[in-house]
Amino acid sequence: MAEQGAGPGLRGARCVPWALGELAEALGAGYDGPPETVIERAAALDEAGAGALAYLSDRRLKDRLQGCRAAAVVLRPADRGYWAGPALLSDNPELTFARAAARLHPAPEAPPGVHEAAVVAPDARLGEGVHIAAQAVVEAGAALGDGAFIGPGAVIGAGAEIGPGTRVEARAVVAGGCRVGARCRLEPGVVVGSEGFGFARDGARWERIPQLAGVRLGDEVEIGANSAVDRGTFHDTVIEDGAKIDNMVQIGHNCRIGAHTAIAGQVGIAGSTAIGPGCTLGGQAGFADHLQIAGGCHFTGQAMVTRSIDAPGVYSSGMPVQPGRRWRRSVARIEQLEALYQRVQALERAVAGEIGRGGEDEDSATEDGE
Amino acid sequence: MAEQGAGPGLRGARCVPWALGELAEALGAGYDGPPETVIERAAALDEAGAGALAYLSDRRLKDRLQGCRAAAVVLRPADRGYWAGPALLSDNPELTFARAAARLHPAPEAPPGVHEAAVVAPDARLGEGVHIAAQAVVEAGAALGDGAFIGPGAVIGAGAEIGPGTRVEARAVVAGGCRVGARCRLEPGVVVGSEGFGFARDGARWERIPQLAGVRLGDEVEIGANSAVDRGTFHDTVIEDGAKIDNMVQIGHNCRIGAHTAIAGQVGIAGSTAIGPGCTLGGQAGFADHLQIAGGCHFTGQAMVTRSIDAPGVYSSGMPVQPGRRWRRSVARIEQLEALYQRVQALERAVAGEIGRGGEDEDSATEDGE
Amino acid sequence: MAEQGAGPGLRGARCVPWALGELAEALGAGYDGPPETVIERAAALDEAGAGALAYLSDRRLKDRLQGCRAAAVVLRPADRGYWAGPALLSDNPELTFARAAARLHPAPEAPPGVHEAAVVAPDARLGEGVHIAAQAVVEAGAALGDGAFIGPGAVIGAGAEIGPGTRVEARAVVAGGCRVGARCRLEPGVVVGSEGFGFARDGARWERIPQLAGVRLGDEVEIGANSAVDRGTFHDTVIEDGAKIDNMVQIGHNCRIGAHTAIAGQVGIAGSTAIGPGCTLGGQAGFADHLQIAGGCHFTGQAMVTRSIDAPGVYSSGMPVQPGRRWRRSVARIEQLEALYQRVQALERAVAGEIGRGGEDEDSATEDGE
């Protein structure tokens, strides 16, 4: 494939230049340097060219400022000495940078209105400035808050509510009766309100247990591409304010996700599990059903969580990869562990007998009956 | 986020009251109490208020009946003594409750007809009472059985067949030539009939092997949001009657899933693997390709299945999470296992030499060549 | 469910017969047998009936040629002796077979044109022979190369580019500003260009870091159903030529996937990780962020990759399933490992004291501070 220079995406190609002083004022940040310094775009620190704004979040990266040609750098006041050029000063450089980038590269605006190829039920309630794109469907009794964005092909089910300023991107689905708060963002392909995995046994058969409740998303919840949140059985499945959910995450019926909890890609949370606020869940982690996870818990990737956790902390499981040959040996060694324990016990007895100390018998592995 | 009371979803808000006696008759269940007792809705046992029907599936939960204000409770005849109020009597309270809930809260009805913003090929065959929602597409030669529901934005490919009473929810896709049985349910975003992952090597390149067959779903198969079932190479990929599949499950080409097998979220099954009937697969479990799994096998979450299994039973793998510090120590200890085996062997030799017994040499881990 | 004979899918039902000699010439392969031998369809070796073409890729399967009724078999010249009937001769039988199958069962043709129920922006640029299906959306400034196929309900965002001969299947989304090369294939439900998981901390809150760049796919890239590729922050997320990606794969922002790398279902790759060319990633494998993985690495299913890898090879992790009882014992034994090391160390000291050798002290597990 031909290398054709950095792709600008859609948004990087849209630049609104700012003067350093005005940008600082708009962001409520300090600055140091000529206020008229023109900033044209946001960039990574190690590739920030002329006109760019970069940021230094971690002092350990300060060598990257050497030879940096950025128009200005966001950094902590205490780090001001590492950079001779114009600066935005902030105790949280990453946050200030994120906000500057949003001003330098505003998202494309969606003009208010309903596309002629959208289908909107006559009794749907549309707030001011709502945008409904082509091929979207808004069913009977749905309500869209002011400034809501419904992307191409998205579906808002009967009686669903979308809060003000919320974006439902292309082909996302908010099923009937579900409620989404303000300033949320549902990426393409998201499904909110699918029927959960609830079945009663009928001999060898399974019969569906009706899922009577919905899903309720707080404000500023974001959900990544092709993720799904099942509706509740009797109570809404709830995702609290500010929770951020990555792509292909599965959230089962009756779950509750705490405020500002961040969930990385492909995490799975089985039904009726509650995750506290302020947690971080690493990619592909899996949670069994009916667990209670305390706030402030952090799980590394692929963590396997089968019991409730009542204390904040870092939790991990799994073995990192090894070269195939070593891994096979490890698997074999683990499978032989039972025999190893017995050998050690035999040694202990032999040595105890020999040198006159009593052997210990602490070898029984705990084992649940089935 | 403001707590605004329990969300009723779409369906929980629709209540059709029943008299106890009539409900019992409709369900073929027994009852005990005034037949005119009015039941207005279904609820969980620990929150069932006036007018609600709850159920007691497990005698160990009988304390929850204390102070319960439910209008009636479904329970086993043998448990009748734990509850003084009106009761529905059933040997399978959960099943009877599920059926009662479906009557108390009927699903919204979709009126027969084709929405004017749907696109239906002229030669598609539509049964009686078919509902085709806005923005749906039904391609040439497709056939929909009586009472089939095609949701908003759903796509039924050329020549595909949808059985009577089957629901294809919003934005689900049934690709060309695939066949779905009766009374199935495909949740939003499901893809049935994607091209499987079949490629031939051409030096460093991969070249697609055409996937010539389709997918065949039996009756009463349910598939959760954003799951995918690949079409077969020469034979249909098959999902047998009554199998229930949760969200984001991947089923590779040429697989066969046995009748009434239940597959939890994010399970992955690689190509040409056959899972027997009556199995349960825990969330995020993974199955290698070309395996044969016997009927009646149960796999816990994140199970890693790399070999065929010929006997029913419970199968597990993986280590549950530990606090990060302990986990790191465990990882290190496992990586040192080889050395530990050697130390034990050295001890055995030393002790044997000392006390005149022969050492054993059983330490070689089985190791496949590469 | 009734067994109704093998399902032909859509494509297997379309057969274009070829004469052996002409097929060999079209494929640039040798042949042996009557050139007029009629071949009607492609089939698996162990079920190839009259008129079928099968292939022998592995000499160990040669017994399957016994009694095979195929019209012709593709095999290596050196294997010619195992099959008495007509043959196509190739040093890469699987590849030659794949190409023959594509000719025997051509994919349904999509006639050029824009469906009247598609929405195409007036300034979109459409190449020759483009097909845009019903309910598709092509936004402002998008460009479609010659022969591009945009399936039903698919969405091509503003300014996106789709290369010649590329297929964007039903309901796939290519978001604004993303670029897809030539002869690619995006299966139903794919999302290219979702906003990545990039957030700055603001106390307990998270605030989105704008994702300014796009996604760039090389030529002949294939992506499976419901997979997602996030757009880059400052640079495009890149998938190089010929990479093949299976269903429900998550590729984070700023990743780079090397040419001809094959990624099986449900793999997750966190942000800014680069995978070299010619790798194979087994199903459900997970990669942490900011890793560098050398070309030519092969990972088995569910591999947990937390560090960069600089040498080609096979890498694995995880324990295969065991019967539940044995697994519980293994878990317990692993949890007791620390104590076992101490017991072995005590034994070593005791034996050393007894037999006059010095004990070793090599028991401290490496442990990172937190």
From TrEMBL, chains A, B, C:
The keyword Transferase applies. It comes from the Bacteria. The gene is lpxD. The active site is at H253 (proton acceptor). It catalyses: a UDP-3-O-[(3R)-3-hydroxyacyl]-alpha-D-glucosamine + a (3R)-hydroxyacyl-[ACP] = a UDP-2-N,3-O-bis[(3R)-3-hydroxyacyl]-alpha-D-glucosamine + holo-[ACP] + H(+). It is an enzyme of class 2 (transferase). Catalyzes the N-acylation of UDP-3-O-acylglucosamine using 3-hydroxyacyl-ACP as the acyl donor. Is involved in the biosynthesis of lipid A, a phosphorylated glycolipid that anchors the lipopolysaccharide to the outer membrane of the cell. Its EC number is 2.3.1.191. Keywords: Acyltransferase, Lipid A biosynthesis, Lipid biosynthesis, Lipid metabolism, Repeat, Transferase. CDD domains: LbH_LpxD. Homotrimer. Pfam families: Hexapep, LpxD. Pathway: Bacterial outer membrane biogenesis; LPS lipid A biosynthesis. Residues 37-102 form the UDP-3-O-[3-hydroxymyristoyl] glucosamine N-acyltransferase non-repeat region domain. This is UDP-3-O-acylglucosamine N-acyltransferase. InterPro entries: Hexapep, LpxD, Trimer_LpxA-like_sf, UDP_GlcNAc_AcTrfase_non-rep. The keyword Chloroplast does not apply. Belongs to the transferase hexapeptide repeat family. LpxD subfamily.
